[in-house]
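In this section we walk through a basic example: taking a raw amino acid sequence and producing a predicted 3D structure, encoded as C-alpha cells. The instruction is simple. Fold the sequence below.
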Amino acid sequence: MATSDDAYQARSADELRTLDAAHIWHPYAGMVDPAPVLPVVSASGVRLRLADGRQLVDGTSSWWAAIHGYNHPVLNAAATDQLGRMAHVMFGGLTHPPAVELARLLVEITPAPLETVFFADSGSVAVEVAIKTALQYQLSTGRSDRTRLLTVRSGYYGDTFGAMAVCDPVNGMHHLFAGVLPQHLFAPPPPAEFDAGYADELVALVERHAGELAAVIVEPIVQNAGGMRFYDPAYLRVLREVCDATGVLLIFDEIATGFGRTGTLFAADAAGVSPDVMAVGKAMTGGYLTMAAVLTTRAVAQGVGTLMHGPTFMANPLAAAVSVASIRLLLDGPWRATVARLSDRLRTGLEPARALSTVADVRVLGAIGVVELHAPVDVARVTADVVERGVWLRPFRNLIYTMPPYLMGEETPGAAADVAQVCAAIVAAAARPE
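The resulting C-alpha cell sequence is shown next.
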C-alpha cells in the first residue's frame, strides 16, 4: 500500500524497528532473533539523526564511503542536475558525458600506466571483474593453464563468489562456502614491518606456481575488513618485480584505501608502483550511490579483447555524475593536510587505550584508527556503549575502529571535538572487560 512521505517520516522509532524486524535481512544477520537496529531519518555533516531525535557522530563514514559527510551541497547539486537530465541509460551501445568525464578523471589521478576503465555496480562486483579480466587475459594470450590466484591471508575482497574465494579461508567470514569456492593460493599475512625473509618466501611462492597463476591480488598497505592490518609498502614493490618477471598480473583492491584514506591519494602511491588492474569504489561516489570501477593497463585491455561482463546499471549516469563531483571536491580541497590533521587527532585521542589491560594494540594510518583487543568484542555491548556517548561505530571481531569522514580533519574546533568524541567513546568501550 502506498504511503505518503509525511506518513513515512512520521513513523515512530518503535514502529520502524518492528516493521524492519518482520521483513528485512541486514548485513551479516539473520531473521531469527536479529540484532537491534537504529532507525536513521536524516543525516548532515558527520551526524546521523535517529527517529527518536538523538544524533550520533558517524565514525565509520557509512562503511568508509561518505568521506565528505552527509547532505553535502556540492554533491546534492550534482545529483539534482543529473536527475533533471537522465537518471539512467543502458551502457551497451551508448555512452554519456558523466561516464566519459569520470573515466578521464580516474585515468588522470590513478598511477600510470592505468588507461582503461570498466564500470561496475559495487566493490564486490569490481573484484569479480578484476578476477575475470586476469583470467581472460591469460586465456586470450595463450596461457590457458593460468587459472588460479595468489593472495595473502587476513584479506577481504567482498561477498560475491569470486571475491569470497580470495578472502582469508580460515579466519574470514566465508568458511561455509569453502566446499564450492575455487581453491586459490595463500601466503601468510604480511608483517607490519618489512621482513626480507618473508619477502623471499613470497617471491618463491609466486615463482613456484607462476605456471598456474593468472594474477596476484592484494589490498595495498591496509587489509581492511580482514583485520584492519597495516603493512610496509615495500612488499608491493616486491610483488611488482616478481609479477613482471613471471608474467603474472598484479591486482590492487583499492576500494577501501582509494581517494585519500591512507594519506596518499591511492595506497599504491605510497609504494611508487602501479598494478596491472586496480579496483576502486566506496568513496568514489562520496557515499551517495553504489558504483565502482576497474582500471587496467592498455596492454591488459588489448590482451583481453572483449571482456565478458555487462551489468544492467553499468556506468549509471546519476552515480557517475556524483562521482565526478566527489572526486573534484576532494582534489580541489586541502585533502592531504586535512587527512594528516585527522590522523594526528586520532593518534592523540586513541593513545590512552594503549595503557588498558584489555588492549593488544593501537594503530593509526591516515584517516584510519584501530584499537585491537585481546578478546573478541561483544558487538551489541560495544555498540550500545558508543551510542550512549553519541557515536556510531561498527566493531567486529576483536577490533573497535574508526574511519571517519574527512570533515573531522578540518581546522575548526567543532571538527576537533567530533574526533575527540569518537576516540573517547572507543577508549571507554575498550576499557570495559567482556
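Looking at the output, two observations stand out. The chain has a mean pLDDT of 95. The CA atoms of residues 217 and 362 lie 27 Å apart. In the next section we compare this with other chains.
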